[in-house]
Amino acid sequence: MSETKSPIGDMLASTVPMVRTLNLAFGEITPERAVVSLPDQPDYHNHVGGPHAGAMFTLAESASGAIVLAAFGDQLGRAVPLAVSAEIGYKKLAKGPVTATAELGRPAAEVVAELDAGERPEFPVRVAITRADGAVTGEMTVVWTLRPNS
User: Fold this and answer.
1) Are 72 and 112 in contact, with CB atoms under 8 Å apart?
2) Mind telling me which InterPro entries this protein's record contains (predicted)?
């Protein structure tokens, strides 16, 4: 089971099967930053012995989802957060455990103001994936929306 340090991490671990499958560990989760780790697990290695690209994608997408819930959880009664698109770049060979750190690309208040105005706001979440020595092994941008409830 995933090691979590926050209610958001607990919720994601209990509702998203891939989070449990990959044993993602949730660290700091605030409206400004979310940190999620993927332990080194041979079952999820690629052909060069590092974490598989799909596992790294899931790690980064999970970190982006955690920050979205932290920043906009108070809006869930009137809008559903949905990922619109994602782009990932693999920069260096990842070996061992890796950590994804997500940050909102727009101020949350600006996004909520658009929602208040009856719009369907979109906003980027940028994620850096690092290995234990601090080297950035991947970068991802997930564009999210808050879809107003009908």
Assistant:
1) yes
2) DUF4442, HotDog_dom_sf
Torsion sign over Cα 69, 74, 75, 76:
positive
Specify whether the CB–CB gap between 127 and 140 falls below 8 A: yes
pTM: 0.94
Q: Give residue for tokens 């940190």.
A: 35
From 101, 126, 123, 127, select the one nearest 112 (Cα to Cα): 123
Instruction: CATH number of the domain at 106, please.
Output: 3.10.129.10
Distance, in Å, from the CA atom of 75 to the CA atom of 81, rounded to the nearest integer, reads: 9
Domain count, the chain: 1
Confirm whether 45 is domain-assigned: yes
